[in-house]
Each structure stands twice: as structure tokens, then as C-alpha cells.
């Protein structure tokens, strides 16, 4: 049966919204840098990652909370377990990253400088010698969320609640780790022309993994559930038609005489009495 979990649906909406933002965040990293683009990169990159990974972490915590429940549909969502509470908890984790990014922008306002590279002057966010390292360092909080979520996911790996959702989220985290290692390393150590591209590719890969293992998987489960309902309805209809056909067939082989005008057993009995 497809699990309809009203309590954590809000987390799915937050995650889907965050995945859309991950894809949109690619554009600032493929556009030419200016002061606004530099500020957007520094502030929004951590924000969109905080949205998706905070939602996944809260989902895992909820899976850990209900892992010992025999019937997941009897789980009571009260206080912080209600949709509003789950939203506020997720928002709290996101706000921490917002504070980090805001403080970075205040202490070091975004600026632009041009560097000579490949016989051309390229616009780069300042400071050129530490911009990429600072971008990665601003995501240390996100890395901590991923690490904590990984630990919680390992504890909830054996849970079969909600079609083993905890196991699929753990898969997202495991696939995210090498992706993060690669794009962070390339954005710091790679050639200047590939650093922004590495960040953009990391966004696309992470967003696609999350999209495939959560929303698309949910759609597949819903499609399978609807298909199962249709098959059950068709089976019930075929069974009822077969039963009706068998009843009609038993009436066709009635050997008792009948009158043509009345077409009833009672009429046949009256006819036989009159004959005698």
C-alpha cells in the first residue's frame, strides 16, 4: 500500500523546492562575474544546499523516531512532529547557514577584479587568491549536516517504514560525498577556467541524484499503487461478471415446463393441472 504520511509531506515539498533552486543556482556560476553575481554566489550557494540537506536530515530524524513503531500509520504527529513543527525545525537549520553567509557578506562585501589569463582579462570575484577557498569554507556547516545525516541514516538503515525511505536518503548522502569531494577539489585546485564549472556540475549532479531518489521514486510508487488499484478493480469486475454469467446459465437449463404466454414455473404448473 502506498504510504500517505501527512506529517512529513511538508519536508517533501521543501526538498522539491530546494531541488529546483539547485538547478537554478547553476546559472550564476556560468554567467560572467560582476558584483551582483559574486554576492549571489556567496549567499545563495550555501542557502540552497542548506534547504535540501536540512530537509533530508529532518526526514531521517523522523524515520529514526518511528523506526520501532509496528504500524507507521498509527504514529501521532504532535508538537514539533506536526507539519508546522517540522517546517520550523528545517527553517532553523537553514537560518544558521543564512547567518553564516550574511556575516561573510558584511565582513567582506562582494567585489570584482580582472585577472590576466590565457592572453585575456577575465572577471573574477575578489579576492582572487582566496575566493574559491572561501566559497568552500562557507559550506562547512552543510558538510556537518551531511556527516550527521549519514550517521543517523546508518542507524535507520534497517527500517522498512515508508517503503524504506531512510535507505534511499542514505543512498543520496553516500552518492553526495564523492561528488562534494570532487567539485570542492576542482574548484580550489583546478585551472581558473574550470573552477566555476566544477561548482555548477556539482549542483547538477547533487540535484539530479536527489530528484531521482526522492520525488521521482515517490511518483513511481504512486503510479504502481494506482496500477494495483486498477488491477484489483478489473479483477473484481471480472469476478462479478463471471458470477452473473453462471447464475444466468443455471436458469437456462431449467427442465420444468413453462407456458409461452406466462413464461413461469407457476404457469407451467397450472397448465399441467388443467391437462389432468
UniProtKB/TrEMBL annotation:
<feature type="compositionally biased region" description="Basic and acidic residues">
    <location>
        <begin position="255"/>
        <end position="264"/>
    </location>
</feature>
<feature type="transmembrane region" description="Helical">
    <location>
        <begin position="84"/>
        <end position="107"/>
    </location>
</feature>
<dbReference type="InterPro" id="IPR017978">
    <property type="entry name" value="GPCR_3_C"/>
</dbReference>
<protein>
    <recommendedName>
        <fullName>G-protein coupled receptors family 3 profile domain-containing protein</fullName>
    </recommendedName>
</protein>
<feature type="transmembrane region" description="Helical">
    <location>
        <begin position="169"/>
        <end position="192"/>
    </location>
</feature>
<dbReference type="GO" id="GO:0004930">
    <property type="term" value="F:G protein-coupled receptor activity"/>
</dbReference>
<keyword id="KW-0812">Transmembrane</keyword>
<feature type="transmembrane region" description="Helical">
    <location>
        <begin position="198"/>
        <end position="216"/>
    </location>
</feature>
<dbReference type="GO" id="GO:0016020">
    <property type="term" value="C:membrane"/>
</dbReference>
<feature type="domain" description="G-protein coupled receptors family 3 profile">
    <location>
        <begin position="4"/>
        <end position="222"/>
    </location>
</feature>
<dbReference type="Pfam" id="PF00003">
    <property type="entry name" value="7tm_3"/>
</dbReference>
<keyword id="KW-0472">Membrane</keyword>
<feature type="compositionally biased region" description="Polar residues">
    <location>
        <begin position="243"/>
        <end position="253"/>
    </location>
</feature>
<dbReference type="InterPro" id="IPR050726">
    <property type="entry name" value="mGluR"/>
</dbReference>
<dbReference type="InterPro" id="IPR000337">
    <property type="entry name" value="GPCR_3"/>
</dbReference>
<keyword id="KW-0325">Glycoprotein</keyword>
<feature type="compositionally biased region" description="Polar residues">
    <location>
        <begin position="265"/>
        <end position="276"/>
    </location>
</feature>
<feature type="transmembrane region" description="Helical">
    <location>
        <begin position="136"/>
        <end position="157"/>
    </location>
</feature>
<feature type="transmembrane region" description="Helical">
    <location>
        <begin position="12"/>
        <end position="31"/>
    </location>
</feature>
<keyword id="KW-1133">Transmembrane helix</keyword>
<feature type="transmembrane region" description="Helical">
    <location>
        <begin position="43"/>
        <end position="64"/>
    </location>
</feature>
<feature type="region of interest" description="Disordered">
    <location>
        <begin position="240"/>
        <end position="276"/>
    </location>
</feature>
